[in-house]
Amino acid sequence: MDAHLPQIVSELLDSYRNVGGINNIDGSNLPSKRAMAVLCADLLQILFPGFHDQEVVHSGELVRSTGSRVESFFRRLNNEVCKSLRLSRPDCTEQEAKAVVLHMLKSLPVIREVLWSDVEAAFEGDPASVSFDEIILAYPCLEAIAIQRCAHTLYRQKVPLIPRMMTEWAHSRTGIDIHPGAHIGTHFFIDHGTGVVIGETCVIGSHVKLYHGVTLGAKSFQKDEEGRILKGGKRHPNVENNVTIYPNSTVLGGETVIGENSTIGGNVFLQHSVPSNSLVYYEETQLKIMPKKKRESISVPGGSAVLSGRAAAPKGGLEPWCDWSI
Predict the structure, then answer these.
(1) Which of 46, 110, 179, 259 has its CA 20 to 30 A from that of 37?
(2) In this structure, are 90 and 224 located in the same domain?
(3) Residue 235: inside a domain
């Protein structure tokens, strides 16, 4: 061993003791991040058999393969849920964890029906989509929504850590950040998806369509006498049925309601409610479009350059509005 390594190990051990950030020692371990990543991938296989496999799924083997997958998934998730529940209840039994996992598994047929409505919404809402198969295979929104809908069932049973681990796994893969606490209706579609943020206490109706960069977030946070943020409470907006929110718009606040059949244009910033059947947008007050003038090559010290947008540079040197390509 290199002579420097024992000192590095000693300093790391000091850091573990003084700083923290180490999994429980001599007690119940925390849920495994690696195990949850595998479980999320396996959950997508159960929800959409054949779409996440390299092997062909034969109809004659569907009963056996589904039974095997569900049994394996149940056993492994039960182990992680047990770890999670014991954080707040050290005396929690495996039977309590079993009841939680069984409740989620029993919800899967209903979740699949709702996810099929999401596939239909994507197909109807995106003119570039060519088939349901393409949406299941290639659209990041469906992956993020599928994991969130399953995590939501665990969240509602007050399982610590695991629901958030699941949605953050989907977030890391898709760029779509949906808190497991958000309540989302049927026929939900996120077009493109990158940069979408949906907060914990959001309530989203049916037939809602969001574009990339949309934030449904909190306006402000209440604090206690010592300046610490108070947890809980309604912090995020409600979005009613048949609402469309275009790219990079932000809607904030727990009392904010976007009324049904409304459309929020791109780059809108909202902190108050909007009545039903509203169209909200910014007027373009400074956008200018004009024809380009002919580009002209001129000599500059050290070589030639092309001045874009103006016929020639002023004698006093280049003005800051000049666009040069050297």
Answers:
(1) 110
(2) no
(3) yes
